[in-house]
Amino acid sequence: MSLTIKLHDCHLNLLNNNHLGISKPKTKVPNLKLKFRTKPIYHSDPLLSVVYNSTMHASSARPPQSAVIKSSLIDPDGGALVDLVVPESQRAAKALEAEALPKVRLTKIDLEWVHVISEGWASPLRGFMREDQYLQSLHFNSLRIEDGSFVNMSLPIVLAIDDETKERIGSSNNVGLVGPGGDLVGVLSSIEIYKHNKEERIARTWGSTAPGLPYVEEVITPAGNWLIGGDLEVLDRVKYNDGLDHYRLSPRQLRKEFDRRQADAVFAFQLRNPVHNGHALLMNDTRRRLLDMGYKNPILLLHPLGGFTKPDDVPLDVRMEQHSKVLEDGVLDPETTIVGIFPSPMHYAGPTEVQWHAKARINAGANFYIVGRDPAGMGHPTENRDLYDPDHGKKVLSMAPGLEKLNILPFRVAAYDTVEKKMAFFDPSRAKDFLFISGTKMRAYAKSGENPPDGFMCPSGWKVLVNYYKSLQTEEASQQQAVLST
Amino acid sequence: MSLTIKLHDCHLNLLNNNHLGISKPKTKVPNLKLKFRTKPIYHSDPLLSVVYNSTMHASSARPPQSAVIKSSLIDPDGGALVDLVVPESQRAAKALEAEALPKVRLTKIDLEWVHVISEGWASPLRGFMREDQYLQSLHFNSLRIEDGSFVNMSLPIVLAIDDETKERIGSSNNVGLVGPGGDLVGVLSSIEIYKHNKEERIARTWGSTAPGLPYVEEVITPAGNWLIGGDLEVLDRVKYNDGLDHYRLSPRQLRKEFDRRQADAVFAFQLRNPVHNGHALLMNDTRRRLLDMGYKNPILLLHPLGGFTKPDDVPLDVRMEQHSKVLEDGVLDPETTIVGIFPSPMHYAGPTEVQWHAKARINAGANFYIVGRDPAGMGHPTENRDLYDPDHGKKVLSMAPGLEKLNILPFRVAAYDTVEKKMAFFDPSRAKDFLFISGTKMRAYAKSGENPPDGFMCPSGWKVLVNYYKSLQTEEASQQQAVLST
């Protein structure tokens, strides 16, 4: 999702796409309890109201590792949600085992992938990819599973090692994984080491090998020449201790919460940018339309991406604060919204990556996925154009193998209506009344401290952004001062 | 298939791969006639013996366009073989219609694709790809068909036009296609024009954007910035008038010939290089093993690629002459071999292209496909390594969506056995006895007029190559002379 509010220019109407497999809800809601849920108790942070009321959030209540979670809405890929956290009773023994193995040191972003895999976002994947999975991902954006059907798997989820580490592993069948801070994270078993052809991986994942692709520069270029696949087990849930871990709900936790709320539809909204009123409009409009279709309790999963993002994106903590203001202000309804952090790092790989974003939300229990203009896209790093055709994301998503069971909701373009003085769906019959505010323009407003047009974003959310950019400028100024005075 | 005879280094045994879905033949051969075929009458060209005996080769006996060909061995993709040649009775009317339309001028290679599509090699594709097909091909190497299943489609089969042609087409719904010589070729109907993002197409197809990829330099770089898709109809079968058209058997003709011969297995061998005794060994060995498995009449489809190849490959006419010597010499048995030209241009796109090579042979009626080391591969254009991992081709092929019904036969490595003085399957227990003769080495032999080791290639076939390289040198010398004397 780009920061731009020129959301898209397609001609598809929201929720009016029979060819996309959207169906009326079943008249009978499974697991319907006779007693309806009581209104949740609100906490100071409205985003968390639902979470803190959920019994599943008590960390000691971890379900057994092998339990199969069945959601009333959508099955996880492969039928069972993967959970690779070693049960507490076996943790000490597993740590001893890991300690004795050759070690692989993880980067910060490797650890984000460990997080993703261990909680089942990539179900049915049970570890870093072996070569046969890597090749299927690279060539087919999908994996064939045992019953002959396909699950979507568009991004290679791989772990790179260098020559020295490969040498050290030798003929060992298993390795221990060590976090960036030196702490033991887990074990990778029945390993397979194979060549890391970076050029091919980049070209097939991004459809470009241009210098300046953020994930490539950050992760792939400095990585080793080998990939190591195997079955993952982690000693404990991955935590970041950044004050945001309570937002990091696992797919299992989200599914339980949806069930607890008796959601009969869950619509996911992936974002890596602040929420403006154009986003809010389409989320609220989606809910309204789902109600019109007969769903009784559609729940919004507002799901900001929490892993690696490029340096000029708004950082996660600022975004979470901004999102919380949007809910506090009532722009989104806390009672029908769940906010969680999606732990994946960002690839900026457009149509390839949007499949991953959607597939992971199937595993989290969402049966509707909202997709806009140029999802997971960015400007071409060396040419003056978008890296991807802005319409390809939604097209590819609607055709992708393994995503058949997910309802894709392409959304209509929203823009600032200068007459109504609010964000509204673009009306081509009075085009001149609409103002498209680009991400660059919005950032320029925030940096200069100038206000955007009334109704673009709720004032408290906007203030969060202004303060962030002000703090950046202060920081820059003091750095320049430091340089000057040395 | 590379010219090198270091065919591969994998550990898979030919016909011993249960996981690849190879099954014993059905005990009852469908369509078995009580009277067995009479021995074919041999013509001077042994490659053609089978063809010239076939009743289907009479050009007037074209079956009706809509007829569904059912083979006893393997169904065409999509269930029906596509045939886009306008019936003779409608040809004049169609030509008049085409004449009145805006025109698109085809290059020589565009026309090769017209040939490929019109005869059904790419079934169920009925024309140049529209954007939804292009995107599926690029991202998933497969197309979803109406019943929800997938057919393989790894290469984008597209037609590029420039801005001026797009302008000329305007809002017309159909265009006429004109050959490189100015002749009317056919019509493309219900057209769709969409952007030709060359960088993305190249990166996703080749897994590289390095300068020097032959098809890219020849076809894509000079092409226009738009792609035009639509339904194809051709006025007549594509002919080349190069003395080789009788080798250009359509999938329909090949299927008829397999049926006429009562083949109970057809194994296809794709090549773009001269046949040496290592190739012959594995083709003969494959037949022997198919017989061991209980097949009664396995037929080899020796299927050299006839479209665009890079300048340093041996040209088609020389290869066909060489192949004919190999059959004359009895290295391959003319009675159990059919030689045809596969009209596709070559992409040199390795694991992506080998899928196309295999898929097209399904449509031609082959139910076994032989795959060796580094299929459709080449050296990296700018680095000192193979462009593709030599084992990826066979791995990708064995996992590719839409190729499930095809038996993939990865072959064992053959090399020159210096003790036995012949090409033999490599025996690692006496590795030092084996000599790997690379393609470069072989070309060097042929250029210098030096003979390769006895038993590398039949002498008459070798002579064809030597003569070809001698003629090249003469030509070069006279060109140099011409330059010097001007």
From TrEMBL, chains A, B:
Reaction(s) catalysed by this chain's protein: sulfate + ATP + H(+) = adenosine 5'-phosphosulfate + diphosphate
Pfam families on file: ATP-sulfurylase, PUA_2
Gene3D superfamilies xrefs: HUPs, Sulfate adenylyltransferase
GO cellular component: chloroplast
Pathway: Sulfur metabolism; hydrogen sulfide biosynthesis; sulfite from sulfate: step 1/3
GO molecular function: adenylylsulfate kinase activity; ATP binding; sulfate adenylyltransferase (ATP) activity
Record-annotated ATP-sulfurylase PUA-like domain positions: 74-236
Location(s) in or outside the cell: Plastid, Chloroplast
Main location: plastid
EC class (word): transferase
Enzyme Commission code: 2.7.7.4
GO biological process: sulfate assimilation
SUPFAM superfamilies found in the cross-reference section: Nucleotidylyl transferase, PUA domain-like
Sulphate adenylyltransferase catalytic domain residues: 246-467
Protein name (database record): sulfate adenylyltransferase
Keywords: ATP-binding, Chloroplast, Nucleotide-binding, Nucleotidyltransferase, Plastid, Transferase, Transit peptide
Top-level taxon of origin: Eukaryota
Family named by the database record: Belongs to the sulfate adenylyltransferase family.
The keyword Transmembrane is assigned to this record: no
